[in-house]
Amino acid sequence: MNFNDNEPCYVISVAARMLGVHAQTLRYYERLGVVMPLRSRGNVRLYSQREIERLRQIKTLMNDLGVNLAGVEVILRLGERIAEMERQIAQMEQEIQRLREAGL
């Protein structure tokens, strides 16, 4: 099977086991807004592969690098802003190339 990285497919117990943390830790991260799993019709939390990777990054920052949760939030937010700026730059470069090809 080949899943989309954004497809919610892991329930909280499986996600917790994959990460080596308690399910309560994942609930706590959700309350803080660090991760936002989708919910099924039955209100069951479902985590995507992308969210699992984000949680692994959080765990690495905290456990291996000693960053506290507030620092993790700042780092993640900055990473998101950098990614958005990179997307904008790529769009601008495409527009510049289009204009050059059009002779403008």
Strand and helix map with partners:
Elements: E1 10-11, H1 12-19, H2 23-32, E2 38-39, E3 45-47, H3 49-64, H4 69-101
Antiparallel strand pairs: 1-3, 2-3
How many runs of DSSP E, i.e. beta strands? 3
Name the overall outline.
elongated
Query: Can you tell me the CATH topology?
Result: Multidrug-efflux Transporter Regulator, Chain: A, Domain 2
Q: What letter string, H or E per element, gives the SSE order?
A: EHHEEHH
Strand order of the largest sheet: 1-3-2
The biggest sheet amounts to: 3 strands, antiparallel
**Any idea what the CATH architecture is?**
Orthogonal Bundle
Question: Which regions are unreliable across 5 or more consecutive residues at pLDDT < 50?
Answer: none
DSSP helix count? Answer: 4
Question: What structural category arises from helix and sheet content?
Answer: mainly alpha
What is the CATH class? Mainly Alpha
Number of domains: 1
Q: Mean pLDDT, nearest integer?
A: 92
| Helix content class | 55-70%
How far apart are the termini?
47 Å
Percentage of residues in DSSP E strands: 5-15%
Short summary:
By secondary structure, this protein is mainly alpha-helical. Helix content is 64%, strand content 7%.
3D architecture notes:
- This protein is mainly alpha-helical and 104 residues long.
- The chain has a single domain, classed as Orthogonal Bundle (Multidrug-efflux Transporter Regulator, Chain: A, Domain 2), CATH 1.10.1660.
- Helices cover 64% and strands 7% of the residues.
- The chain is built from 4 helices and 3 strands.
- Strands 1-3-2 form a 3-stranded antiparallel β-sheet.
- A hairpin with a 5-residue loop joins strand 2 and strand 3.
- The radius of gyration is 18 Å and the shape is elongated.
- The N and C termini lie far apart (47 Å).
- The mean pLDDT is 92.
